[in-house]
Amino acid sequence: MQALTLDMILVLVMIAVAVFLFIVEWVRIDVVAILIMVALPLMGLVTPKEAFCGLSSNAVVSIIAVIIIGAGLDKTGLVNNLVGPVLKIAGNSTSRIVTAISITVAAISSFMQNIGAAALFLPAIQRVSKKLKIPMSKLLMPIGFSAILGGTMTLVGCSPLILLNDLMAQFGLKPFGLFDVTPIGAALVASGIACFVLLGRWILPKGRAEESPTGSEPQDQEASAPNDGVDDIYEMKTPSDFTHYREPVTVDDLRERYLVNVVAIVEPPDYKIVAPPSTMQVHSGVSLGVFGSKAAVERLAKEEGIELKPQLEVFAEELTDQESGKVEAVVAPRSDLVGRTLNEVEFEGRFQVTTISLGRHDEKFHSDVANMPLRVGDVLELHGTWKRLQYLHQNGGLLFTTPVEVEELKTDKALFAGFWLVTALMMVIVFKIHLSVCLMTGAVGMVVTRVITIDDAYNAVDWRTVFLLAGLIPLGMATEKTGTAAWIATGVLQGIGDVPPIVLIAVIGLLATFFSLVISNVGATVLLVPLAINMAKASGMDPRMAALAVGLATSNSFLLPTHQVNALYMGPGGYRSTDFLKAGVVMTVLFLVVMVGMMYVMYGI
Amino acid sequence: MTVITISRGSKSMGTAVAEQVAETLEYECLSRAVLLEASEQYGIPEIKLTHALHDAPSLLERLGHRKDGYVACVRSALARHVARDNIVYHGLAGHVLLKNVSHVLKVRIVADMDHRVSIVMRQEQLSDVDALHSIQKMDKGRMKWSKSLYHVDPSDVSLYDLVLNVPRFGVQDAADLICRGAQLKQFATTTDSKRDMTDLVLACEVKAALVDEHPDVEITSKGGNVLVYCAAGERHGRKVRGVFDSLRKDIDGINNIEVHVGATPPESAV
């Protein structure tokens, strides 16, 4: 075995630092990647040109183009239009619904970012759950897993596969085609769906059905103890002596004391405000539009001597379904809200909506919600005018699970969007032009034909992913260039001994699965591809297969809710980490078996 | 109709003033009774409660949080008493334990050091140096207690509504002044302040019930809606949630109870 050189030691230190920072998350992972990008040339491990070549790599250009194409399809409502027909085909059976939505989500996910595909179906799934009284927990996990698995169906389905050809180029290996992975990906999706259809009753948590729109069935017992009954809008009027001989009463006081939200108020003389600020004082003789359970509102009326009107009078217009309403919105992964409180981001002032409650796992919080640090997957129940809710939808970093007419969809451009997607694919398949060029052609085509404006395209790009990819590519290069990858590979091979290729692929798959759970899937790919190729070369196996095993197995991320899709669905599904562990163990094993089996069948490893 | 807390430096004639005020206003005068009630209700020996209110927690006690538990029990008993109104409390830490209730008149009784030394010399037959030493030791102990448990300096005048140097006034005049203060409208019990008091009683009871197992939780209550603030750790939060059912059963008046993990408790939390 070759002796360790100083450069190899430095690369190993950099890898250790990167892995450590990925795990502890003291700084964001994209920042870690940028730090590495800068540190490597400073240490002389790569040239300055190599350090920044990630930014102009095919992988980075491809991911930018894929995101723009996805945003274009979204803008025209082309993808959204699939929801209705799919649900129609699915009918009323849970298995059929899971199967139909999962296949659709997986197909979309093979050309869009997984998280985008998963978010797209969330409102529809919630509606189905309510309508057919199927617990969300029975639907979301299979569909979420399918979104992740769908990413393995094409070479642009997920970041690791997008990155794969670039990492292989250093070794002079023949790149994979767009659909080379499709048979394996399709088998993975099929096995995932079959697994939940057959074993779902044992591996999925039982859960409760969503409350129906008519509110006829009982609510969540734990959450609704003080608030039995369905929340609704009521109108009240404070007495003429309401503020006599007492401290000023604010909107927030009524919420904290009675769990009743003032969603509209008349400010003297007669100025109506929907979603008043929580610090607003409630004066004598004013009308209030409140949202709460009947019991809570009656308690407020009784204890404060406020008149409860039998129906909406003053707010008959403002609080009707046409003007305002209640929505549920999920804190999205990478949202600016994560880790911060609503008060810290001045949510109320910026968006002028009322926060009714916050749902986390199987709990619902009603008090002091604005001071709770938010997490990915938290479900906020919000009330406001549709106009303000639309503004929030566009700018608030939240995924709405209740549909809001956000913006006029450019349905007339749907044909163009479809055309450019097909053009990009045809260029890849028929003309064998380089993937990044084809995808960028599709993206630019959408901009030129005004499917999406160039500013919207820039805004759609997830720069964190871009810099994560670009920053880690030089680390992969340094690992290979300094001989570190070969050194580790030799060590690992000496450790496991002389094994058949199929076992080696399984070992690589296991390593990739493990690394993608503790560090990001992109990080795992960058570190493991050079290693796997060296291991394959040393044992006389096809190195392309080893690289492919890494690219695929880094999507094997089901054990923990660390994957973005799992984090997104955790809150609305009311899942706990143990739920992911239970279903994830089965899925992880199945993934590895199917992947290795398919590679054996397809490529004869 | 008010509540008066009288905080005093040792040997400052605070007890005499408190008794005089209670007699004049025909209020109940409380000190040790609170400890007895807490001792009875929570099954803790009175000596331990007295010790908890007198001495700052040692390093070991701080780690074990036992003293926090005792103080929470005393606070709960005091809050229940005070909710009945018309009370003069001259036990320890009343001004801290009832700091957020508007109809509580918080009085600090002080006396110059020479006067205090002469009292100790007379009562305990000590030399002037020993008497001074003894008073300084007591003052230091109380300061340490207050700072370690509530992060406040008891000699900080902003904690009180009224500070009186009793030897300058005499017990009777000092008591008269306090009585006049107590009759001002800003210290009168109102519907709102009574509600705040009810909220405080509930928060204190929940705290006393939780403090043994969860010493670092802080509680607020409004209209029966109890919030348990838990510094960090989802597991810890789940453990707290696990006792909600028994809390609802044991403590009257809980309308809703939530545990907020990682949120910063408000200043009014107990």
Structure description:
The complex is a heterodimer of chains A (605) and B (270). Chain A has 605 residues and is of the alpha+beta class. Among the domains of chain A are: 225-308, Alpha-Beta Plaits, CATH 3.30.70.1450; 324-400, Regulator of K+ conductance, C-terminal domain (Alpha-Beta Plaits, 2-Layer Sandwich), CATH 3.30.70. Chain A contains 24 helices and ten strands. In chain A, a hairpin with a 2-residue loop joins strand 7 (354-360) and strand 8 (363-365). In chain A, helix 7 (114-132) runs parallel beside helix 23 (564-573) and helix 8 runs antiparallel to helix 10 (182-203). The longest helix of chain A is centred in the C-terminal third of the chain and has 27 residues, at 577-603. With 270 residues, chain B is α/β, with parallel strands linked by helices. Chain B folds into two domains: 3-187, P-loop containing nucleotide triphosphate hydrolases (Rossmann fold); 194-261, Alpha-Beta Plaits. Chain B is 54% helix and 15% strand. Chain B is built from 13 helices and eight strands. In chain B, the strands form two sheets. In chain B, strands 2-3-1-4-5 form a five-stranded parallel sheet. Chain B has a three-stranded mixed sheet with strand order 6-7-8.
Q: Percentage of helical residues of chain A?
A: 55-70%
Share of helical residues of chain B = 40-55%
Compute the average pLDDT of chain B: 81
Sheet of most strands of chain B: 5 strands, parallel
The quaternary structure here is heterodimer
Number of domains of chain B: 2
The ordered string of helix (H) and strand (E) elements of chain B is EHEHHHHEHEHHEHHHEEHHE
Overall shape of chain A: it is: elongated
Number of helices of chain B: 13
Distance between the termini of chain A: 26 Å
